[in-house]
TrEMBL record:
Keywords: Membrane, Transmembrane, Transmembrane helix. The chain crosses the membrane at residues 54-77, 89-111, 372-397, 425-443, 449-469, 481-497, 509-526, 567-589, 739-761, 1116-1135, 1147-1166. This is Uncharacterized protein. It comes from Zobellia amurskyensis. The keyword Transmembrane applies. The keyword Transmembrane helix applies. It comes from the Bacteria.
Length: 1172
């Protein structure tokens, strides 16, 4: 029952429970008892909603994974009209770099918890319950046997000569002190005491004169729950019952049996303090209970529970355990005992109705893994901060952005995939994998802090190797770049100094470490100087050549296996990720667990040592020595202490002198750091926080690693408890095969996920799926015979009268159209230009005025007769496209020619869809009849849909650039081969741009008087700007012919070199037009057009559609859902951790820290996720 009641303006929760009291001594005794208690409602609610620390840790970890996984969700759910920016690329890289170690740590944490939960601690509980059972069975048999076989003749004769009810044990029977404290003889009929025999110097039993009401007496008399022991000589019937001594309030075991050979008849009663059960010294977190088949607790490792509770009453989910009790079998599982989850192992005690239940608190398992998870995350965060600083330092000092025009603005451009670097990716992958293997082997032989520094050095060296291998400006000798190199070198020196300090400058470690790092620096220097030193250049060339030869040989032998450079690039990134984050995460977790296990081991040792001291003092009070028998009693105490301690590897002994093993009392940095940052998730652990140190600052305790011992000094004498830990078999060698298989499968899945994630991001950002697309070259590709094929289309009887050629300006559409008609045999060809459309009178007869559109038309003359021509080329169909009247006239012209059965080739710079869109959005046109517009729309759709659409692209025209540069230049203006290559890359497209080559070359040259044989050099910035200015009209014409989606895809691509490939139709069209070309990834065909887009396009135009549709995309909707989930988890953590709500500063810090991430990531993601 539970209800809330107010009292004195305070709200309390009322709890009630009913009990029934009955006793076997009197069947008429029956009491109904109701107990009620009040708990403050606030404390009740806090306790009810409080979550376990491991749940808080896991929720927080998955929350971080969710936050850093948002770039993936964006790329997964992004709509085709949403933008993508370089921020998305950087955030995606960060999400993988941070998410991978978190994922690895969570996986190993779960596997460690799984191993502890299902293997390690169940096995330890089995071992504990087996040890307790074995020791108790032996001790119980010895107690029964000695009580039965003991000769009491001397004691009984002494009793006849004494008036006292209590007599001292005879010297011949003093050996039985190991089994009993007191021995009594009672009357079989009444239970009256005939005498007591004292085996210890304590006489408080003399007041006990009748045991007839005691349950062990009544059970024996009534033959209830009797046990038997078979010996070679006798079959002993006895009872044993647990009691709490009335005289000194100590827990004891009472034995009762009968020896018919006794001189004084009666029952023998022996009181024993069991070495195996009473005040047992157990490892921290373990407990046990000895229960009967009804669940009554006979003995318990916790004081005050024996004989006072029923295990089944105070536990839940105990059906399996109860069944094991009744079936008398060994079993293990989980039970809720006293509202705490406990792992248990139950073991029946032979020849009794008792079972031993060994328990371990699951909460401590969760606390352990939460501590390891937290320590690991702290280590990873510190490592990532250092790597971030190194990365920023290496990138912040770099080449300027080239102010006259904007390109290559992406900070990590050197990490983008390049086909020319395929061999480098293979070599780097081999080097990185080799480093991982070497580091993995070394990690087993070094201390945790050295392993951590090793991870930092590996990550730094891996980054430097890659940076100085792939970065285009790696060999730049400017002073600012030397500063960058010096700063990076300082970071390496600092970590090496820290390593030396940790190892106390031990040369056996320092020298190998320095030699290995010198090799790294030599390798980095060779990459950095590969273009400046002839020998290094030659060596690089040979290595690359050898690698390429091996790859080609493998490809020839396995011709069906072809691995594209995108996979080598992804493999290189994966190997880098493996070395810089995944392997360090494993090492950090392993060493965090090792450190935490050492702390828990010391916790175990000091806890058991304190219990050892407490039990020693308790034994002095429980077993007071007779005069002049201290040595014998000390031996008895030692036996109790030795047989009552249970641990797999610990042995507790008492030393004769106090210990202070450490001469150096300086507190190491790591221990101070752990003292500050190690979390406490369980109040039971608070008192052991000092175990992060290896020695008490007052030398009251100390821990040594070699040999593995722990000392705890007595305060009242010059002695110490020494806890020694024996070496056990390597746990990895005893791991269950199924667990090893599970871990391997899990790791393979995680690594496969990360590799797939790298492939996913690289495809989405670098558009590898479009690498095969090239500009349409119908007009320039003579081998394929496109002219003849298109001519056959025109000759076909079922042809729809003509073709539609679409393409950017100056791509040769008109020439190609005439070539098709000529090759098809049409000799009489007329060219009509829609640029002359304004000269045609409105509403006039088309047949009579068709000559107005002819290219040979002169005002005042009308000698054009359409009957004289077989085919027509209609140019500039896109002219005045936004005028419905002009479009209506164009439609009439085309319909007229079709009605005259003429062959027509329409030439346009726009798609038919751009014409259709004018009519689809024409409902607001008040000047025109909607019916008339609908008729025109249907006519356009029918005509253009029937014409085969041929897209002509801007193709390369490098030969024309070379020809132009061979004429009109003075001898001193002749460009170098390098300058010609630069000019060709910029101007070698279309029919128009090559014509500008001579002018742009002359305007872009600058004097280089200090260079021998080369008085002039081409300035790239000037070249780009002059090309943009001279071709401004051409570029503007191209821009105006593009559909809106293509414009914004180009704008997005021009901003930072990345675009959303889900807008695949527009990207396909732009690549077929030649405006976007494949140079390791989709790029605008030259820099001047890219700069034109960035500098000449109206910002209002660029953002018009974006502002119209902002926030309506798939990613925008998904982002809202993810935010709701994140906020829900944060609130759930806050409610599940009431301390956060009490400590305002902690609450603000925790939720504020998480809250800052949301808008930051949101802003960066949204900046690329806006509509185009």
């Amino acid at each position: 029952m539970s209800i809330g009641i107010p009292k004195n303006d305070e709200v309390y929760q009322l709890f009630g429970r009913k009990y029934v009291y009955e006793t076997r001594l009197d069947s008429n005794v029956h009491y109904d008892i109701e107990i009620y208690g009040l708990v403050e409602t606030e404390r009740y609610n806090e306790a009810v909603r409080k979550l376990d620390p491991w749940i808080i840790a896991l929720l927080t970890t998955f929350l971080l994974l969710g936050l850093f996984g948002m770039p993936y969700f964006k790329m997964l759910f992004i709509a085709e009209d949403e933008r993508l920016s370089s921020n998305d690329v950087i955030l995606s890289g960060i999400s993988v770099i941070i998410g991978a170690p978190i994922l690895v740590i969570v996986f190993f944490s779960l596997m460690n918890h799984y191993y502890d939960y299902y293997y390690k601690f169940p096995d330890r509980l089995d071992d504990l319950s087996e040890k307790i059972t074995t020791r108790y069975e032996a001790e119980n048999a010895a107690n029964v046997t000695t009580l039965y076989n003991m000769s009491l003749a001397n004691e009984e004769r002494a009793r006849e000569n004494s008036d006292s009810l209590t007599i001292r044990i005879s010297e011949t029977n003093e050996v039985y002190r190991e089994n009993h404290k007191f021995i009594s003889k009672i009357d079989t009929a009444t239970g009256a005491v005939k005498y007591h025999i004292r085996l210890i110097d304590k006489n408080n039993i003399e007041n006990t004169k009748n045991l007839g009401s005691r349950p062990y007496y009544t059970d024996y008399v009534n033959a209830k729950n009797l046990w038997y022991i078979d010996t070679l000589a006798h079959k002993i019937k006895y009872v044993m019952r647990p009691v709490v001594s009335i005289e000194d309030q100590s827990e004891e075991a009472i034995y009762l049996l009968k020896n018919k050979q006794d001189f004084i008849s009666g029952y023998r009663v022996g009181a024993a303090q069991l070495k195996s059960l009473h005040e047992a010294i157990l490892p921290f977190g373990f407990q046990f209970a000895v229960v009967d088949d009804d669940g009554e607790v006979w003995f318990h490792s916790k004081k005050g529970r024996a004989t006072l509770e029923n295990f089944l009453y105070v536990s839940r989910y105990n059906s399996k355990l109860k069944a094991a009790m009744l079936a008398r079998i060994k079993a293990k599982g989980m039970v809720n005992y006293r509202d705490e989850g406990q792992l248990y192992s139950i073991n029946p005690i032979s020849n009794t109705n008792l079972s031993v239940i060994a328990l371990y608190d699951i909460g401590l398992l969760r606390t352990k893994i939460s501590e390891v998870l937290t320590l690991s995350c702290i280590g990873i965060v510190l490592a990532l901060i250092l790597i971030l600083i190194i990365t920023i330092l290496s990138l912040i000092i770099r080449n300027p952005k080239l102010g006259l025009y904007k390109y290559d603005r992406f900070l990590f451009e050197f990490l983008t995939p390049k086909k020319s670097l395929k061999t480098s990716y293979i070599l780097l992958s081999i080097v990185l994998i080799g480093l991982v293997l070497v580091a993995f082997l070394i990690s087993f032989y070094i201390t945790p802090i050295i392993a951590y520094i090793l991870c930092l050095l590996l990550a730094i060296y891996a980054y430097l190797i890659i940076f100085y291998t792939l970065h285009p400006y790696r060999s730049n000798g400017d002073f600012k770049f030397k500063i960058r190199d010096f700063i990076l070198l300082l970071a390496i020196i600092f970590l090496n100094i820290l390593t030396c300090k940790v190892n106390d400058n031990q040369m056996n470690f320092v020298l190998p470490s320095l030699l290995v790092q010198i090799l790294f620096l030599v390798f980095i220097y060779m990459n950095k100087s590969s273009k400046n030193i002839k020998f290094v250049t030659s060596l690089h060339g040979r290595i690359h050549s050898l690698t390429q030869t091996i790859v080609d040989a493998i490809r020839k032998r396995n011709s069906s296996i072809r691995i594209g450079y995108r996979y080598w690039y992804a493999l290189f990134l994966f190997c880098w990720l493996l070395l810089s984050t995944i392997f360090p995460a494993y090492v950090i977790f392993k060493n965090a667990k090792l450190l935490n296990d050492e702390i828990w081991s010391k916790t175990n040792k000091i806890d058991m040592a304190r219990r050892f001291m407490d039990k020693e003092k308790s034994l002095e009070a429980s077993f007071p020595a007779f005069k002049n028998q201290k040595e014998q009693f000390d031996k008895l105490h030692k036996e109790h202490l030795n047989l009552g301690q249970y641990h797999e590897t610990f042995t507790l002994v008492e030393t004769t002198d106090s210990q202070a093993p450490f001469d150096n009392q300086k507190v190491p940095f790591l221990e101070d750091f752990l003292w500050q940052i190690r979390p406490t998730y369980d109040v039971r652990i608070n008192e052991f926080q000092g175990m992060v140190y290896d020695i008490a600052h007052d030398l009251s305790w100390a821990s040594e690693k070699n040999p593995n011992t722990f000392y705890l000094n007595y305060l009242d004498n010059n002695k110490a408890i020494c806890v020694t830990e024996t070496n056990v078999q390597n746990s990895a060698a005893t791991l269950p095969p199924q667990f090893i298989l599970l871990v391997i499968i899990g790791l393979i899945i995680i690594l496969a996920i990360l590799f797939s994630l790298i492939l996913f991001f690289s495809d989405r950002f670098f558009a590898f799926r479009f690498r095969h697309l090239e500009p349409n070259d119908f007009d320039t590709n003579q081998k394929e015979g496109y002219i003849e094929k298109f001519g056959q289309i025109l000759h076909d009887e079922k042809s729809n009268s003509g073709l539609l050629l679409i393409g950017p300006p100056f791509c040769g559409k008109q020439t190609f159209a005439k070539e098709i008609l000529t090759d098809a045999g049409y000799l009489r060809i007329a060219t009509l230009s829609m640029l002359q459309l304004e000269n045609m009178p409105m509403g006039s007869d088309i047949g009579e005025n068709l000559g107005v559109l002819s290219s040979s038309y002169q005002k005042g003359q009308n000698d054009f007769h359409h009957e004289d021509y077989e085919a027509f080329v209609i140019e500039h169909l896109e002219h005045n496209i936004k005028s419905f009247d002009a479009n209506h006239t164009k439609l009439k012209v085309i319909l007229f020619l079709i009605s005259q059965r003429k062959r027509i080739i329409l030439v346009s710079e726009v798609y038919p869809s751009q014409i259709f869109s004018m009519y689809e959005s024409a409902q607001g046109e008040a000047e025109h009849s909607l019916g008339k517009l609908q008729d025109d729309f249907n006519s356009w759709r029918n005509i253009l849909s029937a014409f085969p659409q041929i897209l002509i692209g801007i193709t390369k025209n490098t030969e024309k650039v070379s020809k132009k540069l061979n004429f009109g230049l003075k001898s001193d203006q002749s460009p170098s081969a390098e300058d010609i290559s630069v000019l060709t890359d910029e101007l070698g497209y279309s029919k128009f741009l090559p014509t500008l080559a001579p002018v742009i070359l002359v305007k872009s040259l600058y004097d280089t008087p200090h260079t021998i044989n080369q008085p002039h050099r081409l300035d790239r910035q000037r070249m780009v700007m002059h090309t943009q200015n001279l071709a401004h009209g051409y570029y503007n014409d191209i821009w105006n012919t593009l559909p809106t989606r293509e414009r914004y895809l180009l704008y997005d691509l021009a901003k930072d070199g990345f675009m959303n490939i889900k807008n695949r139709n527009s990207l396909f069209s732009l690549m077929k037009k030649g405006l976007v070309v494949w140079h390791d990834r989709p790029k605008i065909f030259n820099y001047s057009f890219k700069n034109f887009i960035m500098t000449s396009v109206s910002l209002n135009e660029a953002l018009r559609l974006e502002n119209k549709n902002r926030g309506k995309g798939t990613w925008a909707n998904t982002r809202i859902l993810i935010y709701l989930v994140i906020i829900t988890v944060i609130v759930f953590i806050g409610l599940g951790k009431p301390e956060l709500l009490k400590d305002f500063e902690t609450l603000v810090g925790t939720l504020g820290g998480l809250g800052v991430l949301i808008p930051l990531i949101s802003k960066l993601l949204a900046s690329g996720g806006q509509k185009m």
